[in-house]
């Protein structure tokens, strides 16, 4: 194992190697092992991740994880149809909620994104179908260090363009790629990470049944 790989891996609770970020704080451990990279096709869950990734812009993901429960409470558990009905009173309420990130542009984007997702449903489509249509084709070599993990890709640029064209906000190419990582469109667990194989197998089963 190269020095770069060793540097970017760290032992998890069971002593097996993990992506170093995944054991860098207690909140990351379960998220890294049980969520990040696992294929997600449920519209509500995808909408939640999309919005949380937008709120994360300019901040750390750890901040988002620590506020995740509060976000769910504030945004009706990210039920798309319910958030799509939010109005000015809800924006005022959310701007006064110290438990979340009180950024007007991001709050209004979350509501706009619910309306855009609801429009997909009205047209007999789904957020899942749209997002997963931009999943990279073929197999990708496992990243051996953080240096091998891109900030954005051609697919994430295309996904960002399509989402924006459909009325979604705060969905630039970097945010779109973070969404693709989080929801299993790509598997960016490092080579040597004890979780990578299980994530890849789950992604393979999802492809076989899609």
Summarize this structure briefly.
The chain has helices spanning 3-7, 26-35, 43-56, 61-74, 80-84, 88-95, 104-122, 127-132, 154-165, 173-182, 196-209, and strands spanning 9-11, 17-19. The chain is mostly helical and 210 residues long.
How many angstroms does the end-to-end distance come to? 35 Å
Order of H and E elements: HEEHHHHHHHHHH
How many helices in DSSP terms?
Answer: 11
**Approximately what portion of the residues adopt beta-strand conformation?**
under 5%
How many beta-strand elements? 2
Q: Major sheet: order of its strands?
A: 1-2
Averaging pLDDT over every residue, what do you get?
A: 95
Helical coverage, percent range: 55-70%
* Oligomer classification: single chain
Give a description of the structure.
It is a single chain. With 210 residues, the chain is an all-alpha fold. The protein has helices at 3-7, 26-35, 43-56, 61-74, 80-84, 88-95, 104-122, 127-132, 154-165, 173-182, 196-209; strands at 9-11, 17-19. 56% of the residues lie in helices and 3% in strands. Helix 3 crosses helix 4. It starts with a helix and ends with a helix. The relative contact order is 0.17.
């Amino acid at each position: 194992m190269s020095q770069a790989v060793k540097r970017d891996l760290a032992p998890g609770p069971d002593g097996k190697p993990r992506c170093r970020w995944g054991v860098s704080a207690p909140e990351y451990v379960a998220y890294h092992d049980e969520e990040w990279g696992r294929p997600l096709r449920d519209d509500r869950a995808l909408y939640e991740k999309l919005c949380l990734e937008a709120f994360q812009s300019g901040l750390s993901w750890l901040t988002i994880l620590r506020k995740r429960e509060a976000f769910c409470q504030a945004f009706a558990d990210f039920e798309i149809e319910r958030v799509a009905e939010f109005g000015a009173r809800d924006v005022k309420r959310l701007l006064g909620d110290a438990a979340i990130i009180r950024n007007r542009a991001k709050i209004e984007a979350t509501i706009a994104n619910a309306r855009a997702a609801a429009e997909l449903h009205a047209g007999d489509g789904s957020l899942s179908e749209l997002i997963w249509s931009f999943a990279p084709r073929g197999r990708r070599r496992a990243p051996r260090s953080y240096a091998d993990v891109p900030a954005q890709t051609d697919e994430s640029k295309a996904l960002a363009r399509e989402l924006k064209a459909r009325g979604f906000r705060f969905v630039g190419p970097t945010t779109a790629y973070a969404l693709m990582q989080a929801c299993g469109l790509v598997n960016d667990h490092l080579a040597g990470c004890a979780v990578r194989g299980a994530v890849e197998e789950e992604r393979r089963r999802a492809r076989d049944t899609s």
